[in-house]
Here is the input.
Amino acid sequence: MTDNSQTIYYTLTDEAPSLATCSLLPIVRAFTTSAGIDIKITDISLAGRILSAFNDRLPHEQQVQDGLAFLGELTQDPCANIITLPNISASIPQLTSCIAELKSQGYDLPDYPEDPQTDEEKDIQARYSKVLGSAVNPVLREGNSDRRAPAAVKSFVRKFPHSMGDWSKASRTHADYMREGDFYSAEQSVTMEQADDVRIEFVDANGNVTVKKELQMQEGEVLDSMRMSVAALREFLEATMQDAKQSGVMWSLHVKATMMKISHPIVFGHAVTVFYKDLFEKHGALFQQLGVNENNGLSSVYEKIESLPRSKREEIMEDIHACYEGRPELAMVDSVKGITNLHVPSDVIVDASMPAMIRNGGKMWGPDGKAKDCKAVMPESTYSSIYQEMINFCKTNGAFDPTTMGTVPNVGLMAKKAEEYGSHDKTFEPDEDGVIRVVSSDGTVLMQHDVEKGDIWRACQTKDEAVRDWVKLAVTRSRQSDTPAIFWLDRNRPHDIELIKKVNVYLQDYDTEGLDIRIMTYDEAIRRSMERMIRGRDTISVTGNVLRDYLTDLFPIMELGTSAKMLSIVPMLKGGGMYETGAGGSAPKHVQQLQEENHLRWDSLGEFLALAVSLEDMGTKQDNPRAVVLAKTLDEATGKLLENNKSPSRKVGELDNRGSHFYLGLYWAQAVAAQSDDPELAARLAPLAAALADNEERIVGELEAAQGEHIEEVGYGYYHADREAIKRIMRPSVTLNTVLEQANAG
Here is the structure.
């Protein structure tokens, strides 16, 4: 096995994070080389994942490493040290756009077949399906999650708080969700008493059995199954739209069509066809002929009708506009461009969109560009009520105050693909009525559901090893931080009932004397956490995978203004570590501004935080004291950067991402030169500190001079950019480049 003990693997991803990495890494390498640490880039971008999936169809010079597979293997190495940046969790529209770009660059890739007929088309779709949605996380997250707000960031926010919208007790904003017929109401769960091979079977009305999937289950593993009724879903959606229309509030849909890449796009598609019911009833046959896919949103209609004669296109556009007359106002993604909440499934993701709405005083943007109250529709009820609890809390107590509020760190269960709901090949949409059941090897039916055509049925697994480690991590974090911890588990939910049994047993393996560790339902847990939070007290949330995703946006957006400033650590089950750098939901808008104005406002703070912990862990685990010094001084530099307000500005002509990187390098070099733990390292980096300080005015001037003009780089691509072009864009300071070259050469 390759010795990875002194190597940090840095992921190359997409959009703004990828651009920022190009600017940051030369600065970072000026420090890490002095500690004998090698930084290697591994491409897990959407374009990279697509190309690697079709290496066998590409000429040798176009073939690329399967970076995701490589890092997946690396997670099993006790020395693994991986820094991951936000990547595109691709919807089908994003996938097809990326394919089109790659084809325009000369890559002979097949189109994505939405309705595969031949074996070849089915193979192509299967390859692309592995790229869709949250494809990266299940492969790399070979450990549970530890996410928290760093002390330096929390201190900065208390001094310089972000804006919070005002809440009115008269606000009509509310969350709405299904009370019956959804996944929660139909969930079943079993814990395997022994290892076994089980089958997921579909039984039609005539008793014919089709095996849909075979699973190898481990002893102690939890297996869930659940079904959402399409009839109940559509009835619910129609009722919410009528209620919003009558009560005069906007209607908005909030689903997770990226992480739950199979089940939630289907839910999204039903919302589209219910809202635009008259349109699809009138043109349904034509849309089917054109290949319109409602699961891809209204954008699919716009795309497919482009091939029609002008008169027919105009007729359809008029019918689209006519739908709005009988429907409530629809929340907008971009009011200026007329992009609605139902345009594409990846535009409005619940874990980001709901906190943003709550932070904005319960308002979203309407077609007229004004912020308004709304009915926030989250069809599946499992976790939806937590948002209503926070809405109620804010209506009663007003907006949260970032200057005084406590923090809610998270310990999340996600190892071994735990609780990967609706995102994999255990999700089915039956094309006829029947029964879907889970059967053991001896023929015992473990779980079963009556299903109707078009229902959504899904199963998921949670391995015992992951649960054991989750409990251990929760106790460890509670002890280390002297903070109460709450397991968010619903005693009325079948899956959680199985987990509660395990938690109560595994807690006995640890010394919990003096610790405040409780098990509460979701609503009880969020109420207690918020009550403590407004009093400046901290509470660890210990949650399953989906709630981990939701809460590590919800609380940070209230506390810090963004989830990108959270410290996210994944201690691997095999001993290595992964360090995540924050969310990437706003990255597309940042790229657009860079293209138009050559100003990147993306904040790399998450990378600074992740890198510091990565270095600290490497120093401790691999006995590299110099890495520990770099970690400590990097934290000092990050704190100074925040205090001196050297984070990127939104405005052209002011400091952007590249300038922020320069100041991090300056402060880091000064901190290393000033420390006495490693005099040799101080002497080695003192010339860098002096060169950066002496040339500060010139470097900042060169970085600012590059701004303001539309980028016209040859070969620049959105998904698959020419790296040399990106270097020219992201490293425009000749002086800084020269200083770094000299430092790295030395």
Q: What stands out?
A: The first strand starts at residue 7 and ends at 12. The chain has a mean pLDDT of 94. Residues 625-643 form the longest helix (19 residues).
